[in-house]
Structure formats: C-alpha cells, structure tokens
Amino acid sequence: DILVDGKLCDCDIVVTCQVGDPVPLEVKLTNWSKHSVGPFALTVMPYQDYQNGVHNYDLQDAITFVGSNTFYIDSVKPTKDSVYFGALLFLYTGDFYLNIKFHEDNCSRELPLSWLCLPSVHIRATEPVV
C-alpha cells in the first residue's frame, strides 16, 4: 500500500499537493506468503516524465526528501507488515512521479538480486493558495 498525504494511491490517481508543504509518504509492505521474506532495501526515486520516453531523475533542485529515500527492512514475517514513513518537499510546480522499488538484499543466494517495482505514483505540485 502507498499513501501520499494520507490518501491511498494507485496508478490511476493523481495526488495534488502544494509547493513548500511537506507531503507525508507511507509505503507498507505486507507479507502474504507462508515464509518470512527479506532482507530488502526500499528506494523511492522521484522523476518527471516528458511523455516522449524520457524520464528525468535529476530533480535535486525540485524535490527534497525529509529523511532518507532508502529504507532497509531486515525481514517481514508471514501476515505481518513493514512500513516506511517519510516526507517529500516540492520546491517547484509540476507533475512528478515516484518510482518505488524493493530490492532483495540477500547475498547468500546464488540467484541474481531481484527488484519488485510498484506502480508509479503521480503527484501534481501546485502553487500555494494565498
């Protein structure tokens, strides 16, 4: 589950926020399997989509994180959750997206490391209301 500013998000919803206001971000990983999973590294990567196949990830002047954009999860037991809390601060108006990835970080395996990517979250940063 992904919540932006307290609103549950999926790929069809655009969340609107105001420039200069911290926007709470919550990502919850639920383990529905019968075995513990992990360790994982959760990474949140903001980008802009130029609608021509180009994604701009160079946004350090437009977005900043309150806290870290990477969160480490040791393991998640069956039917349990692990929740990441953070916040984003948009410095400019525009349409932004969040790429949220879980990277399996288990070096004891013989298989290559794998990524679980969630659908991108669409956030529209608007001018503050005066």
Automatic annotation (TrEMBL):
Residues 16-125 form the Trs120/TRAPPC9 fourth Ig-like domain. GO terms for cellular component: trans-Golgi network. InterPro entries: Ig_TRAPPC9_Trs120_4th, Trs120_TRAPPC9. This is TPPC9 protein. The gene is Trappc9_0.
